[in-house]
Protein backbone atom coordinates (compact mmCIF):
# COMPACT_ATOMS: atom_id res chain seq x y z
CA UNK A 1 0.00 0.00 0.00
CA UNK A 2 1.46 3.33 -1.07
CA UNK A 3 1.55 5.90 1.70
CA UNK A 4 0.32 9.33 0.85
CA UNK A 5 1.38 12.44 2.65
CA UNK A 6 -1.18 15.05 3.62
CA UNK A 7 0.12 18.53 3.01
CA UNK A 8 -2.05 21.18 4.65
CA UNK A 9 -3.12 24.05 2.41
CA UNK A 10 -2.05 27.56 3.15
CA UNK A 11 -4.70 30.01 4.29
CA UNK A 12 -4.60 31.72 0.89
CA UNK A 13 -5.12 28.39 -0.93
CA UNK A 14 -8.14 27.61 1.25
CA UNK A 15 -9.79 30.93 0.38
CA UNK A 16 -8.95 30.53 -3.34
CA UNK A 17 -10.36 26.97 -3.41
CA UNK A 18 -13.55 28.23 -1.75
CA UNK A 19 -13.85 30.87 -4.48
CA UNK A 20 -13.90 33.77 -2.04
CA UNK A 21 -11.56 36.41 -0.80
CA UNK A 22 -10.36 36.72 2.75
CA UNK A 23 -12.34 39.94 3.13
CA UNK A 24 -15.58 38.28 1.99
CA UNK A 25 -15.41 35.63 4.69
CA UNK A 26 -14.75 38.17 7.43
CA UNK A 27 -18.33 38.83 8.36
CA UNK A 28 -20.27 39.59 11.49
CA UNK A 29 -20.99 35.90 12.09
CA UNK A 30 -17.43 34.92 12.98
CA UNK A 31 -14.60 37.00 14.34
CA UNK A 32 -11.14 36.98 12.79
CA UNK A 33 -9.91 35.08 15.84
CA UNK A 34 -12.64 32.41 15.40
CA UNK A 35 -11.87 32.03 11.70
CA UNK A 36 -8.17 31.63 12.42
CA UNK A 37 -8.99 29.01 15.09
CA UNK A 38 -11.31 27.13 12.69
CA UNK A 39 -8.58 26.97 10.05
CA UNK A 40 -6.06 25.76 12.64
CA UNK A 41 -8.46 23.13 14.02
CA UNK A 42 -9.41 21.98 10.51
CA UNK A 43 -5.77 21.31 9.68
CA UNK A 44 -5.25 19.44 12.98
CA UNK A 45 -8.35 17.30 12.39
CA UNK A 46 -7.28 16.39 8.86
CA UNK A 47 -3.75 15.59 9.94
CA UNK A 48 -4.90 13.49 12.91
CA UNK A 49 -7.27 11.42 10.78
CA UNK A 50 -4.68 10.90 8.05
CA UNK A 51 -2.24 9.08 10.36
CA UNK A 52 -1.99 5.39 9.47
CA UNK A 53 1.05 4.37 11.49
CA UNK A 54 -0.32 0.85 12.01
CA UNK A 55 -1.05 0.49 8.26
CA UNK A 56 -4.60 -0.68 8.95
CA UNK A 57 -6.38 2.13 7.12
CA UNK A 58 -7.56 3.43 10.50
CA UNK A 59 -5.84 6.20 12.45
CA UNK A 60 -4.35 5.13 15.77
CA UNK A 61 -6.56 5.53 18.83
CA UNK A 62 -4.75 8.51 20.31
CA UNK A 63 -4.96 10.41 17.00
CA UNK A 64 -8.66 9.59 16.65
CA UNK A 65 -9.43 10.77 20.18
CA UNK A 66 -7.43 13.97 19.69
CA UNK A 67 -9.27 14.60 16.41
CA UNK A 68 -12.58 14.17 18.26
CA UNK A 69 -11.54 16.73 20.87
CA UNK A 70 -10.54 19.12 18.08
CA UNK A 71 -13.90 18.49 16.37
CA UNK A 72 -15.69 19.37 19.61
CA UNK A 73 -13.77 22.65 19.76
CA UNK A 74 -14.57 23.29 16.08
CA UNK A 75 -18.28 22.74 16.69
CA UNK A 76 -18.31 24.86 19.84
CA UNK A 77 -17.21 27.89 17.80
CA UNK A 78 -20.50 27.41 15.91
CA UNK A 79 -22.41 27.13 19.21
CA UNK A 80 -22.88 23.36 19.02
CA UNK A 81 -22.17 21.34 22.13
CA UNK A 82 -21.01 17.75 22.16
CA UNK A 83 -20.96 16.01 25.50
CA UNK A 84 -20.03 12.57 26.72
CA UNK A 85 -22.49 10.75 28.99
CA UNK A 86 -20.85 12.00 32.21
CA UNK A 87 -21.00 15.61 31.05
CA UNK A 88 -24.62 15.16 29.95
CA UNK A 89 -25.55 13.77 33.33
CA UNK A 90 -23.85 16.66 35.14
CA UNK A 91 -25.58 19.23 32.93
CA UNK A 92 -28.93 17.53 33.42
CA UNK A 93 -28.50 17.43 37.21
CA UNK A 94 -27.54 21.11 37.24
CA UNK A 95 -30.58 21.94 35.13
CA UNK A 96 -32.87 20.01 37.51
CA UNK A 97 -31.42 21.80 40.54
CA UNK A 98 -31.84 25.19 38.85
CA UNK A 99 -35.39 24.28 37.83
CA UNK A 100 -36.32 23.25 41.39
CA UNK A 101 -34.92 26.50 42.80
CA UNK A 102 -37.16 28.54 40.52
Q: Report strand %.
A: under 5%
Mean pLDDT: 80
Number of DSSP E strands: 0
Terminal residue distance: 62 Å
Outline the low-pLDDT stretches.
none
| Overall spatial form | flat
Radius of gyration using CA atoms only: 19 Å
Number of helices: 5
* Biggest sheet character: none
Q: Quickly give the structural class.
A: mainly alpha
N-to-C SSE string, H for helix and E for strand = HHHHH
- Helical fraction equals 55-70%
Note down, in words, how this protein is organized.
With 102 residues, the chain is mainly alpha-helical. It contains 5 helices and no strands. The longest helix is centred in the middle third of the chain and has 19 residues, at 32-50. The protein is flat.
List keywords for this structure.
mainly alpha; flat; single chain; 5 helices; about 100 residues
Helices and strands, with pairings:
Blueprint: H1 11-18, H2 22-25, H3 32-50, H4 61-77, H5 85-101
Helix pairs in contact: 3-4
Give a quick summary of the entry.
It is built from 5 helices and no strands. The chain has helices spanning about 10-20, 20-25, 30-50, 60-75, 85-100. The mean pLDDT is about 80.
Amino acid sequence: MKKSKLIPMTEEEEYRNAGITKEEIMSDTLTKKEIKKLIELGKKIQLGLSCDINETGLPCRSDRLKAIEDMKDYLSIHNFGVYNSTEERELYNKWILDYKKN
